[in-house]
Amino acid sequence: MTKNTPLNLNLVELVQAIHQRQWTAREIAEASLSRIEDLDHGLHAFCTLDDTALEQADETDHRLSAGLPVGPLAGVPVAVKDLICTRGLRTTFGSRLYADFVPEQDDIVVERLRKAGATIIGKTNTSEFGYGGVGHNHVFPTTRNPWNVDLTPGGSSAGSAVAVSTGMVPLALGSDGGGSIRIPASLCGVFGMKPSWGRVPLYPGCRDPHFPGQSGWESLEHIGPLTRNATDAALALSVMSGPSAYDRHSVPSESNDWVLSSLDAMINTRIAYTDDLGFAIVDPEVRSVFEQAVERLRTVISHVECAYPAVGNTEGLLDTLVALETDRAGLKAMTAERGIELDGWIGSILERNWTGDQFTAAIMERKRVANLTAEFMRDFDFLLTPATASAAFPIDTYGPEKIAGQMLPPSSWVPFSALANFTGLPAASVPIGFTQDGRPIGLQIMGRHLDDKGVLSLSAIVEKLFAQSGWSKPSV
Question: What residues are labeled active site?
Fold first, then answer.
């Protein structure tokens, strides 16, 4: 990108530039579409572009020129994960079952972004129905990591992370049922936030039974932003959050104040950290970068202590809860009618013969995990872990072959993220460094119940410690 492109600006700067009329909304949309055209043929972040994007931008320019009210994201180009419904714009959920599906309504969060004046640029690639921390499916070409195109960007919000990492857009929506925002944020070197459960309402996603596959994950799924830094994410969440009658689990906004706290206000917070949660096998380079980040944080925060809730390995718990919340009957009927076989994680969930006792045991286990974590968080404001146990690995696989020299199941590389989904606690991934061969590494920050602002504030402090804006341009 050249210096005079608006896409050099982060989200907050871009909003200011738009209101000061340094660029028109059309110029910004054109710059976004041009960058997508230049880069995306080799990355496949986007699966569908919105052919009304310039019309949306023109409407914003008209309102600005006429002195009419505009929203806080007026003219900002936004990418939307292909699991999130967009009215009139193809939404496939990464599945051949919905390859030509065009929703009749926006998801609540998209509706709010439109009301805030954002320009919807297009849809970003994902794993099928979000079942997997990768970026490939049977509908579109595999999404590639911009730091090394032979590697995965992670997932399932793969395309959204790549779109932000490469500067195609300053804001992208992701969804997160077990780490699907934080995982690709970590592997692509951007900021990604899973807000508190209910902070950003969901509908029709997860809650419309008419769409098998799309209607799962109800008690686990969150929608959140991927951005270049925490301050940008705070601005996005100020628009996206707030209760809705369509989501019975959505929570009221405690305040409209999303201005992040300063270091002076955070200096006495109590921070716990662990590099393995007592069980995880972690790549030595990831562990080393994580430990360096903790030591640097000690220089500005008074209390940083090695501690963690003793929840144990919850990999099997996630698998069972996802199966419980999947419309298995609906998907089986749909695949039989269409003659389409589902594979990967979702395929294995459909193949297994689950019992009521297994589901009941998982529900009780989740209660144990939530209670232990709540008790632990009485003593600490934040829990820090690596975002993932491994940096990026080869595309079209589901996990690295080995971690720290040990052969492990594919999902063992993401042992940290699901805890925040079981508990509904806010959690973010912040870029903190790289492996020796240049693969990004993220720090996960998990906060107390509903303390989204605290997680964002600590994230911003970490960004300053590492002298980075939360965004580094990969060499693509």
Answer: 81, 156, 180
